[in-house]
Amino acid sequence: MLFLFLKFIEVETNELLKKVRHIEIKTRGLSRNIFAGQYHSAFKGRGMAFSEVREYQFGDDTRDIDWNVTARYSKPYIKVFEEERELTVMLLIDVSGSKDFGTHSAMKKDLIAEIAATLAFSAIQNNDKIGVVFFSDKIEKFIPPQKGKKHILYIIRELIDFEPKDIKTNISQVLQYLTNAIKKRCTAFIISDFIDPHPYQHALTIANRKHDMVAIQVYDERETEIPNVGLMKIKDAESNKEEWIDTSSFRVRMAYKEWWDKRQDTMYNAFKRSRVDSVSVRTDEDYVKALINLFNKRS
User: Fold this and answer.
1) Where are the alpha helices (DSSP H) in 182-286?
2) Degrees (nearest 5) of the Cα angle 41, 45, 51?
3) Phi and psi (nearest 5°) for 89?
4) What is the largest CA-CA distance in the chain?
């Protein structure tokens, strides 16, 4: 019995390693061949580091005068700063119950994992640190930002295999956690379907004042409207509530469509008012094109 159990664990481990390897090969190639330059220009370091001092020249900002050096040489010198190129990149990954849905070749959680892995490899190739926060309606796991391939492979493994304790969503909570936990300014990607009953605009605004926030919505085509297939049993993935609906009813289909459109409008308004760059990616669409458009918009 113990032998069979160990054999099962070995098979599960081998399957996980195959998945990790597959995502590593695909996303590392994308980040190296497609996103290398665009990532760098779209997410430049926002901090300024002291570089040197030089003599004051007409037109220089007097606020940059180094008074200690000026006093020593009896003529004005200014501090020269240069942009810090090294970033800390944080991935805020939605692991709530609604991620386990998809009607095409990939579920939302698969697409989230690929997008996150691509961004992680892009960050590492730019010599940036990368960290992750998995969230549902609470903080499920925090991986502190580090560099290196070993760290990346650990992140990919968690993206594929992580099992949350809760299935609900609270985006405000993870944004508040980011604001409090990461002291130095970072670039943070929040990757979610943004199906959340709680308002999050205020928390997003505060987070974006301290950090450089980017929102990536992942959704499925079937979430946008209900097909006409007669009686259908539906289940809320984040409450486990089930009910039968009559999809042959035009009124039922329109009510759902109006709900979806209103929810999308609320989400986009939250991004706009918080001044957060965003992109939406459908599970049957090419996320590479979507990320390139996002990078170009920020360059």
Assistant:
1) 201-210, 250-274
2) 120
3) -110, 130
4) 87
Torsion over CA: 166, 167, 169, 174 (sign): positive
Q: The tokens of 293 are what? A: 């458009």
**Helix (H) / strand (E) containing 148:** none
Q: What is the pLDDT of residue 210?
A: 92
Three-class DSSP category at 196: coil
Does the reported pTM lie above 0.70? yes
pLDDT digit string, tens, across residues 145-203: 999 888 988 998 898 888 999 989 999 999 999 999 998 889 999 999 999 999 999 99
Within its chain, how far is the Cα of 173 from the centroid? 15
H-type alpha helices, the chain:
2-33, 36-42, 67-73, 108-125, 149-161, 171-181, 201-210, 250-274, 287-298
User: Cβ distance 223 to 138 under 8 Å?
Assistant: no
- What DSSP string runs through 19-56? HHHHHHHHHHHHHHHTSHHHHHHHS----EEEEEEEE-
| pLDDT of amino acid 63 | 77
Q: What are phi and psi of 148, to 5 degrees?
A: 105, 150
- Name the pLDDT band for 2 (thresholds 50, 70, 90): very low
Q: Compute the distance between CA of residue 232 and CA of residue 245 in angstroms, rounded to an integer.
A: 5
Measured CA to CA, the distance from residue 173 to residue 215 in angstroms comes to 15
